[in-house]
SEC-C domain-containing protein (Actibacterium naphthalenivorans), 227 residues
Amino acid sequence: MVEVTISDDFYSEVQQAVAKHQPELSVSRTDSSIILEGRFLVYGSDGPIDSSNGVFDSYAIRAEVTELFPAQEPVVFEIGGRIPKIVDRHIFPKDGDCCLGVWIEWLMKAPNHRFATFLNGPMHDYFVSQTYYETHGVWPFGERSHGKLGVLEAYGDLLGVPPDEKTISNYLQLLSRQKIKGHVLCPCGSGRRLRQCHSDALQRLSQQIPTFMAMRMYRSIAPARAS
């Protein structure tokens, strides 16, 4: 496997985003990753997120970002011991990293994939949610189920279908094709041909979800093949 090194341009982009939006984080780099470490500030919701807004909380964090961003999700850790390392607090118990959400859902919904958009979006929202949960016992933005079911819920929302694995797999398999033919069976499971069922909906989805992204989504939920 070829190791991807950090480019000066991407390192500069991360430095600028952190300096503007999270000035109490340090930024350093190795050959293969960028390391953020320090106090992550949680700001109020009035106006853009930057250091001029009121800080109402903070978390000690460490994050690792690779040159493959945004294709590869950054790994974020809360290192102050404040958040219990359990799935109900959206921490992966095995490695202790934060579950910021379903990454592909963010890729599909985000206005752009700049690092600042990630910093002010899923990363900031995660820690806002943790603070709110500590105070109120509920998650302010709702929450996905844990594990694969949460991924299916996110994909179902993107596709406009129920979070049923077979239905979602059928849709994603079709959307992974360069050309969708009307004589195939409709992925909804009706038993009818696509042209007689959800053809218009599939065409709209094919314009919204690129074939490579549909394939990535499909592979993320497909059962592992026996070796």
The longest strand covers residues 55-66. The first helix runs from residue 8 to 21.
